[in-house]
Design a protein that fits this description.
By secondary structure, this protein is α/β, with parallel strands linked by helices. It has helices spanning 11-23, 34-43, 63-73, 91-99, 112-144, 152-165, 181-190, 212-217, 234-237, 253-265, 291-296, 302-308, 325-339, 349-357, 363-377, 385-388, 403-408, 415-429, 434-441, 445-454, and strands spanning 3-7, 27-31, 48-52, 82-86, 104-107, 171-174, 199-203, 218-219, 231-232, 242-246, 267-269, 276-278, 282-287, 311-314, 346-347, 382-383. It has 4 domains: 3-130, Response regulator (Rossmann fold); 166-315, P-loop containing nucleotide triphosphate hydrolases (Rossmann fold, 3-Layer(aba) Sandwich); 319-388, Helicase, Ruva Protein, domain 3 (Orthogonal Bundle), CATH 1.10.8.60; 403-454, Orthogonal Bundle (Arc Repressor Mutant, subunit A). 47% of the residues lie in helices and 13% in strands. It is extended and about 100 Å long.
Length: 460
Amino acid sequence: MSCILVIDDRPDIRLSLAILLEDHHYSVIEADNPQIAQVKLKNHAVALILLDMNYQLDTTSGEEGLAFLAWLQNSSFSHTPTVAMTAWSNTDLVVKAMNLGANDFIEKPWRNKQLLHAVEQQLNMSSLESQNKKLKQQLSKDSSEHYVWQSPVMQQLLKKVKAVANTDVSILLTGDNGTGKSELARYIHQQSHRSSNAFISVNMGAISESLFESEMFGHKKGAFTDAKQSRIGRFELAETGTLFLDEIANIPLAQQAKLLRVLENGEYEVLGSSQTQKTNTRVISATNGNFSKLLDNELFREDLYYRLNTIEFRIPSLKERSEDILSLAHYFMGKFSKKYQRSVNAISPGAKQAMLDYHWPGNVREMSHLIERAVLLTEHEQLLAEDLHINNIVNNEQKHSTPRQVLDELPLMTLAEAEVRLVKLALNKTASNVPQAALLLGLTKASMYRRLEKYGLAKN
């Protein structure tokens, strides 16, 4: 509910405005002079100001109202839209008020419909300006906060990416979960001639089959039972920009033909409309799925696959580019220290070694979450090994051992004892991530949980 501040020295005027506005679902706070209004602004989240221009000290010139507008323009509340009101209107006063930041001007006595329209219009414009500001801030953040990869394998990949970034060729990004496919897609967009336009990302695995057309192409009001208002689709949102289709392998087979048509000739129809629209959008897609298997099983259209991967780039896992681990850790430490206003500015030698010894099954995404948590919870100005909660170092002899090598070094013991040790080792290797530990041991998640319960390890 938007809060409106009414500034007027007459109680009857304030009461009339309060009744009118509250009947239309606005909340109202009142001030009988500009000085009180300044205090109210500091204590309330005001969405719009209705300002009388004349008060008891000067009932015709509007000087007190103009003085308040001048103060407002130089304050931290300058973004708050203001509608000026007076019974003594003249062109000169209107011009002065507008020059000092008033957004609209209404004469008393007002017409209710006119006043409500002005209020709604200014609130809508304020909301759009706020959204635009956030988008600009996001674009600025995206362009300034970019990690520079250190490893030769990533530098070679980026060199190839830059060679095609400024074209409109379709690109397919592959690689394990968490390797940074969405970040690379955004980087490609920033390096392209479309960088000043929108980058729209959509997780194809999260769209239900029944809503596919509505999400991707939009719909008209009344196109189906629950379509109470029109909706803009992702292709239209990404017009003249880039559309990133993440988890592309999860598109239902029945919907793939509709996407193929857009990629082939750029044409689509909004759901509920017979008018064909043309799109000017660059498409980048990503997956960690096995396309060869999907194509063999006829779960993914071969013609769509070839449309998506005019050029394919595979992003290596973090364990394949160990040169990036420490520099990436410093990047995230700086990023989250700034975000949460923490004074963490270094990583201890022990923490560095722990990260180098870890195999990072969750890749870059796992490191981001791990460093974020460590920055938030540490009580020191540097990250220590215990802040990271990486429990993969068992002893000096086993530091570089694989699970199979550790098994070979186990002394003779019962199968139950060996199973307990292997379960503990797998939990240590995965920082107590049960599904990942089960994967290391070749077990299902349910089997792993049964062993934890059986050996009383559920709380470890």
